[in-house]
Amino acid sequence: MDYADDKYTKREIEDIKIVLRVLFLFIPVPLYWSLYDQQGSRWTFQASRMDGDLGGFVLKPDQLQVINPILVMILIPVFDRVIYPFLAKCNIMKKPLQRMVVGGTFVAIAFIVSGIVELQLEKTYPPKL
């Protein structure tokens, strides 16, 4: 980009570099949303092939759709009032971008675990004809 200084001002070149850095952050967004949208279909289907027994409570596959919004409503204040201030005191994850990276990492781990669970479930399927 620096070779374009004969056509563009230094400010324009710097602005383009900044835009490209921001666009780089959006590369994983379509992948995330394509996997996230599977919660309503594929993950529910996966849950229907599991027993859902959590000790004294049985979680049915269609109930999984309700858990996400409930957890969001509960955990946002917990993170905002308890976890993030505690981490800030420890000089960990002070910036929103750092929090996004950690959250994205946990999401990636959750999708990987879901894939591993599916591979284990496939071993229990009846053989195809």
Tell me, briefly, the overall form: flat
Instruction: Report, as a whole number of angstroms, the end-to-end distance.
Output: 58 Å
Number of helices: 5
The pLDDT mean sits at: 87
Give the H and E element order: HHHHH
Estimated helix fraction: 55-70%
How many structurally independent domains?
Answer: 2
Helical/strand content category? mainly alpha
Low-pLDDT regions: none
Q: How many β-strand runs?
A: 0
Main sheet makeup? none
Beta-strand percent range = under 5%
Please compute the radius of gyration using only Cα atoms: 22 Å
Describe the protein's architecture and organization.
The protein is mainly alpha-helical and 129 residues long. The chain has 2 domains: 28 residues, no CATH class; 82 residues, no CATH class. 65% of the residues lie in helices and 0% in strands. It has 5 helices and no strands. The longest helix has 27 residues. It is flat, with a radius of gyration of 22 Å. It starts with 9 loop residues before the first helix and ends in a 7-residue tail after the last helix. The mean pLDDT is 87. Its main location: membrane.
Brief sketch in words of this structure:
65% of the residues lie in helices and 0% in strands. With 129 residues, it is mainly alpha-helical.
Topology readout:
Blueprint: H1 10-25, H2 29-36, H3 42-48, H4 64-89, H5 96-122
Subcellular location: Membrane
GO molecular function, one term: transmembrane transporter activity
InterPro entries: POT_fam
Write a concise keyword list for the protein shown above.
129 residues, mainly alpha, 5 helices
